[in-house]
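**Protein of interest**
===
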Amino acid sequence: MTRAGYEARPAMLEREFNTRYWGKAITLQAVRAWLRGDAIPSQEKLQVLAEWLKIEPQVLRYGEEVTRAVRARRKSWEEGIGYQEREVFEAFLGLPAAQRKIVREVIMVFARAFSADAVTEKTKPRKNAKVRS
């Protein structure tokens, strides 16, 4: 509310919300419960709040940190995948469930083997490294 230029008070929220919402008016007690985190508005009411405050509804429901984390993960996923990988994913999604399960298991075996190889490489003594006794 403060970022949108409104005083963060229950009475302010009640008045501003009720002027924008066409359903049954909310009470001051309901607003206080929202602000304390004791209750979460319905999706319909979150939409009204989001439009009024010019913020995404998921930010109101889950907070900015969760929303930021989801965006960052989605961005890294989209940037890290090229045409060939997308083509493989599309083909994978077109397979019957039983075949997808087998492909997934094969990929997981490769991933575990690669992970084990990486750990082994890190712990392996380097060639020409001096061994202290």
In short: Helices lie at 10-20, 28-36, 43-53, 57-62, 64-79, 83-93, 97-123. The two ends are 67 Å apart (CA to CA). DSSP finds seven helices and no strands in the chain. Residues 97-123 form the longest helix (27 residues).
